[in-house]
Recover the amino acids of this structure.
């Protein structure tokens, strides 16, 4: 491993910047639009509506089991596009590097971004790099913005959830959150728990193709977890949501870590899961479609939309108990993504 | 001024995040697309090609004469779109806040963003906020990405500069760079020098309308200054550029500060200037159009594209001297934008 470091000069806009661009960015992210190095990328446009999203990634540590900040930055922005029913098309890449970052670490992150893009079928078409003095940042912060295309007739929003709709969760809760938190706390978990970071656009495309008009809402429960996202859906749809406590999928290691740390899986961040709100009579078909994809093979029904106080989320236990689930509050879990 | 501060919890995705979004972001950036607070914004699409760009802003100090980091983030990204001949349409806003940032300072920046958007006729349609622990960032870093639409027939690129084309600079060099550097060094300049931060899309639209097909290249000389940008144009077009030393416009205060600090105006950052490469026989008409706009009223011809070694930029002095101008090298001017 080389000891070559990022210097302030790499953000100056001069020769050092150009070397960084050609030796790291173009080398790995190579595509004709990015390679032209103009002030903006120009994209052909198939018409129809556009989806546009942005997310910054400040996760600490930058490398973790199951991924790294680069993969997260690609998957997270792809997923934000997919949650509106859009087909992800192009990403921007904005880097804020701390002076002294090892060149090799930067290159490892860029290679990871390149792999994640290839695997998902998207391209980085425009980028920018700034360097801040040592102690004014932390290794690497990444912003990815994304553009996607929305097909005619697709209209997905948390305000379209309807009474009688069923809530499906595409897999287990908290894998990403617990992976990052235990890693940061230096706690070694038994087994091979890793971040669930993964792109969800192919599973979403399969759902929209199989059940046009019946997929009302899609949301990925990242920061704030399933609890906060369900609260937003209930709020925006003007309905209540009832969740079946026994149905909530959590891996044993995540449960164990939550008990140890005094955390609740419902509030933990996920990076490769989504909540699907589907017409009640199409829930079985939605599950069948999801189970046929690698991203949704552990999908389960966890609850339903019901008439009631707008924004209220209630968890029901088998013995007839019920408790209200509020959004995350006063529980800072910084730099989880 | 209130002492209310940004806490880690404001980046958690829970209730504190929601309060920040409604009390600051929605309050000032108010528009129907942003207000829906979905994972992505959905934009109507007039067809044609899209321009897409990204830039992160890490300027220090965040408030300076003539502007602040918020205005810079709006203008800079608008200008990157305009430099490809695109009509700026929508912006994303990604914030990385340092724990302890004063709420009032954040709000001041957001108000400034809102004003700059209104003035330029663009909208922030999607956003994201992360909070990093104290000492892991520096007050506020902003990423804005932008989407613009490119009209049929418009095709602007640094590779289209042709032999015989004339180089116009839209105004004086180095106002932004010297404003930031002297502010940071605690040097008080005589007079009222301030950053030139300003959106250039209206001047560009006037040029493209008045001289369709004759505007070959547009570039804004930000980091690295006019010298680095001219080198890129010469490189990409495969030509040489000759610059007339006497024609280069520099304000007296900037010249004085450059002498004091041992700097060269050609390498200083600008945030409201552009280089226009236009067919030689249309240079007078281009100047006339630019002089009719507030952004270009000080525009001057500074040189021309000539056959010769690809990528070579030469400055000629009245007494017949000539020197080669290289891109910025080994001169770190961090956090100028």
């Amino acid at each position: 491993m080389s000891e070559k470091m990022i210097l302030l000069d790499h953000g100056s806009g001069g020769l050092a910047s150009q070397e960084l661009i050609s030796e790291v960015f173009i080398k790995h992210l190579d595509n004709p639009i990015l390679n032209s190095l103009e002030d903006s990328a120009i994209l052909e446009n198939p018409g129809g509506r556009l989806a546009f999203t942005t997310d910054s990634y400040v996760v600490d540590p930058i490398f973790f089991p199951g991924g790294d900040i680069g993969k997260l930055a690609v998957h997270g922005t792809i997923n934000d596009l997919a949650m509106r029913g859009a087909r992800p098309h192009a990403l921007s890449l904005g880097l804020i590097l701390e002076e002294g970052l090892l060149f090799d670490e930067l290159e490892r992150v860029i290679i990871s971004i390149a792999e994640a893009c290839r695997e998902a079928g998207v391209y980085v078409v425009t980028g920018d790099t700034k360097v801040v003095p040592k102690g004014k940042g932390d290794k690497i912060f990444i912003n990815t913005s994304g553009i996607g295309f929305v097909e005619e007739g697709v209209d997905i929003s948390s305000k379209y959830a309807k009474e009688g709709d069923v809530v499906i969760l595409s897999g287990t809760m908290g894998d990403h959150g617990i992976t990052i938190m235990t890693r940061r706390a230096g706690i070694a978990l038994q087994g091979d728990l890793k971040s669930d970071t993964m792109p969800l656009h192919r599973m979403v495309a399969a759902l929209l193709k199989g059940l046009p008009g019946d997929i009302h809402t899609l949301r990925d429960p990242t920061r704030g977890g399933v609890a906060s996202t369900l609260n937003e859906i209930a709020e925006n749809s003007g309905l209540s949501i009832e969740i079946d406590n026994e149905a909530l999928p959590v891996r044993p290691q995540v449960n164990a870590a939550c008990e140890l740390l005094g955390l609740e899986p419902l509030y933990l961040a996920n990076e490769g899961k989504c909540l699907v709100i589907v017409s009640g009579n199409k829930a079985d078909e939605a599950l069948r479609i999801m189970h046929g994809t690698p991203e949704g093979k552990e999908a389960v029904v966890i609850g339903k939309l019901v008439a009631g106080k707008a924004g209220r989320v209630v968890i029901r236990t088998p013995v007839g108990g019920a408790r209200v689930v509020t959004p995350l509050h006063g529980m800072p879990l910084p730099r989880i993504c």
